[in-house]
Structures are given as structure tokens and as C-alpha cells.
Amino acid sequence: MAKRIAILGAGESGVGTAILAKQKDYEVFVSDFGKITETYKDVLENFEIEWEENQHTASKILNADVVMKSPGIPDKAPIIKQLKDNKVAIVSEIEFASEFTNATIIGITGSNGKTTVTRWTHHILKEGGLNASVGGNIGDSFAKQVALSPSENYVLELSSFQLDDIKNFRPHIAIITNITPDHLDRYDYDFSKYVASKFRITMNQTNDDYLIYDADNEAINDYLEAHTIQPKLVPFSTTKSLKYGAYIEHNELIINIDENKIHMPIDSLALKGTHNQKNAMASSSAAKMLKIRKQTIRESLANFQGVEHRLEHVLKINNVNYINDSKATNVNATFYALESMSSDTIWIVGGVDKGNDYSQLNALVNEKVKAIICLGVDNQKILKAFNNCVDIMVETQSMSEAIKIAYKIGERGDAVLLSPACASFDLFKNYEDRGRQFKEAVRLL
């Protein structure tokens, strides 16, 4: 008899899982508590997959052999509680898809830098002639690719939510870019639970596998001291020389993983800033593990294009630089953005606060920010945090208004930086929508 899978959430990961499950002869049912977009409905119809929207019919879900839960659905949701009470197995899309591929998997997690490292690693592998696809939290879902366009290597960006529901998922190379407080609302405001969630990426690794990690990150180092993990450790650092791993010395990035050391001047990296030196080290260490040639790695570190909505230069108008960093949805990401600013900055900040502590930004705001434009429904916390740091603070409710004010305040040589430090769901669909509205508003000036 065919196994039955119920899929909760008809977004990219849900629909991808449905396609793969159908291909593997599962009886498939897709249920979304909200509305399903027309595009995904068409796909489900096309593959003759049964679906429902605006509800979860318990009787059609609780009888499943396995349930795939989309990462956005919290454990507190009533249907999840029912499934757990009934002891129905719940897996993530990543877990389900990994059972149907023998490809080499590079899994990348962390509070910041995941997308850049994922894209950069993929770029180096492609330049090195490997058959490689990118997926997970970005692009086409991993499951859909396993079903419709299989690859020999997958570079997967993985959120902590995706890792929370894995059982046997095992990447050959795991990368933890860094761990700083984020999404604490999903982890009972307990940072140690969030850290443990990130480290789930290593839980099935063996000593044939690798963990590439930021050796300057306190939370990662504390965890590694307190726990024994199986994979071979490959550290990277911008503050200390390492006998093994990647580090900076005399303004050179050095990768010392095998007898074939790589040296590269940091000035020739495609992306600037300390955090991008780390992103480059993580990506190139992974490429080195997969035997990509030194010359290819060097060239790929120098010619990478970067990621949309991550410190993306939009336009220069009247000698004022407009920079889109909409992807900065937490304080740590904004810290990196402000740190990389070399001119007086008009900072656009705000949105849905995830339990942010803004105090770590005070020194940077004092040094670099001349005006703050709040862009959110509730800006009280931001106003309170920085009212002693800057003279100009303005509240706005729309992107076009924020940009018009920035344009008025901006003087020759300034930068206007959208780096919200918050989620976007109060005024925008998502961070991409927020970033695109920023770019559009700047172009209309």
C-alpha cells in the first residue's frame, strides 16, 4: 500500500516536497492554513495533487504516515500539537528530500552571511566545473530539484527552523557562519536553545565529514568546548593565525587546509568588509575540500557578484550613495553594515522587532550615523535606544516617504543605508519586497 504524506504549507518547500513525494509514489495531501498562490495551485493541479487552503482538516492530516511541516509553522500551532499527541512523524523538506539523493551536500547555517556564503560557494563550484545546484532557503526548493533536476552537488542554505525537524539529514560539509541572538521569539527567548538548533546541522555527521566554522564567534567556541562532535573541524578567523584552517596575515587571506596553501590579497576580494573576508574563507574552505583548483578559487573570490538586498549599491544621486541592505533582519547584520560604512550615514531602520538589543550598535551609530529614519509601525524601542546618539530622528510609515526625507537630509559624500535590523512583515511582504521598494523609490527621485 502506498505511504501517505500530509504536507503543511503550500509554499516553495511544501510544493517541492509534494512533487517529489508524488514521483516516489506516495499518496500526497497538501494543506495550507492560509491562501495558496495561483502559481502553486497550478503546479499542484498539474501534478494531480490533492490540496486545501484556508484550513487544516485534521482527519486528512492525522492519518498520514509522515507529515512535512513548512519551516514557517511554529511548534505552537494547534495542528502540530495534535500530530505530536498522535505520535505522527514530522519532518522538514530538507530531511525528506535528502533520503532520495546520493549527492554531496554542503549545508550552510548561521545567523548572518548564509546567503552570501551559499551563493559564493556555489559560484566557486560552478567555476571549477562541478555539477552543482543551490537551494534550501533560497531558489528552488531542494525537494523539487531532487525530483525534477537532480545534481551531483547541492549547496543548501539552512535556517534553524529547517534544522529543527531533521532526523537523519547529513551534509558532507557543514558551515556555521556565526551565531548571534536572532529568532529568539521561536526559542522561548533562550539563546542556548537557538545555538543548539544551529548545531543540529552536525548531529549526523561522522569523522569523514567536515564542519567549517567562525573561530572568532563566542557562542560557537563555547558550544564546541562543551560538546564532542564527530566531523573534522575547519576553523576560520580574522583575528588570529591558525595552524589549520583559514585566516588573515599581512593583509592576505590564507587557506591552509592541505599541503597546497592558498594566498590572496584581501584587497582583491569581490566583496568588502571584515564579514565578507569571513564569508570568503568559509566558501573557499568548502571548495578546497572538494578539490577545486587554487587558481579557480582565487578567481572566483575576486569576480563574485554579491547578493541582492545585502549591502547592494543602488545609485549615486548628487554624490550621495544609496545602499540596500534589506536582508539585514537582525542587529548583528546591521552591525556589519554600519561597520563597513566609510562616510556619514543616514540610516533607515525598523520593522518587526524580534527581541532586539540595540545597545551593541551605540558606538557605531555615534561614530557613523548623522540621522535615523524609522520605518515601522512601532518605532518606540528604536527612538529610545538612539535618541542620545543622533540629532535627527524621523518616523515614517512608507518607503517613498523615508527616501524623500533621506534625500532632503543627504549632503555631498553621505550614504543612505537601508539596514532595518528587523523583520519586514509590518509594512512589507518580506525583505525582498522591502528592498525592491527601496530601489524603486530611489530610482524615482
UniProtKB/TrEMBL annotation:
<dbReference type="InterPro" id="IPR004101">
    <property type="entry name" value="Mur_ligase_C"/>
</dbReference>
<keyword id="KW-0573">Peptidoglycan synthesis</keyword>
<dbReference type="Pfam" id="PF21377">
    <property type="entry name" value="MurD_N"/>
</dbReference>
<feature type="domain" description="Mur ligase central">
    <location>
        <begin position="108"/>
        <end position="286"/>
    </location>
</feature>
<dbReference type="InterPro" id="IPR013221">
    <property type="entry name" value="Mur_ligase_cen"/>
</dbReference>
<feature type="binding site">
    <location>
        <begin position="110"/>
        <end position="116"/>
    </location>
    <ligand>
        <name>ATP</name>
    </ligand>
</feature>
<keyword id="KW-0133">Cell shape</keyword>
<dbReference type="GO" id="GO:0008360">
    <property type="term" value="P:regulation of cell shape"/>
</dbReference>
<keyword id="KW-0436">Ligase</keyword>
<dbReference type="Pfam" id="PF08245">
    <property type="entry name" value="Mur_ligase_M"/>
</dbReference>
<protein>
    <recommendedName>
        <fullName>UDP-N-acetylmuramoylalanine--D-glutamate ligase</fullName>
        <ecNumber>6.3.2.9</ecNumber>
    </recommendedName>
</protein>
<keyword id="KW-0963">Cytoplasm</keyword>
<dbReference type="InterPro" id="IPR005762">
    <property type="entry name" value="MurD"/>
</dbReference>
<feature type="domain" description="Mur ligase C-terminal">
    <location>
        <begin position="309"/>
        <end position="422"/>
    </location>
</feature>
<keyword id="KW-0067">ATP-binding</keyword>
<dbReference type="GO" id="GO:0008764">
    <property type="term" value="F:UDP-N-acetylmuramoylalanine-D-glutamate ligase activity"/>
</dbReference>
<comment type="pathway">
    <text>Cell wall biogenesis; peptidoglycan biosynthesis.</text>
</comment>
<keyword id="KW-0131">Cell cycle</keyword>
<dbReference type="GO" id="GO:0071555">
    <property type="term" value="P:cell wall organization"/>
</dbReference>
<comment type="function">
    <text>Cell wall formation. Catalyzes the addition of glutamate to the nucleotide precursor UDP-N-acetylmuramoyl-L-alanine (UMA).</text>
</comment>
<dbReference type="Pfam" id="PF02875">
    <property type="entry name" value="Mur_ligase_C"/>
</dbReference>
<dbReference type="GO" id="GO:0051301">
    <property type="term" value="P:cell division"/>
</dbReference>
<comment type="similarity">
    <text>Belongs to the MurCDEF family.</text>
</comment>
<dbReference type="InterPro" id="IPR036565">
    <property type="entry name" value="Mur-like_cat_sf"/>
</dbReference>
<dbReference type="InterPro" id="IPR036615">
    <property type="entry name" value="Mur_ligase_C_dom_sf"/>
</dbReference>
<keyword id="KW-0132">Cell division</keyword>
<keyword id="KW-0547">Nucleotide-binding</keyword>
<keyword id="KW-0961">Cell wall biogenesis/degradation</keyword>
<dbReference type="GO" id="GO:0005524">
    <property type="term" value="F:ATP binding"/>
</dbReference>
<dbReference type="GO" id="GO:0009252">
    <property type="term" value="P:peptidoglycan biosynthetic process"/>
</dbReference>
<dbReference type="GO" id="GO:0005737">
    <property type="term" value="C:cytoplasm"/>
</dbReference>
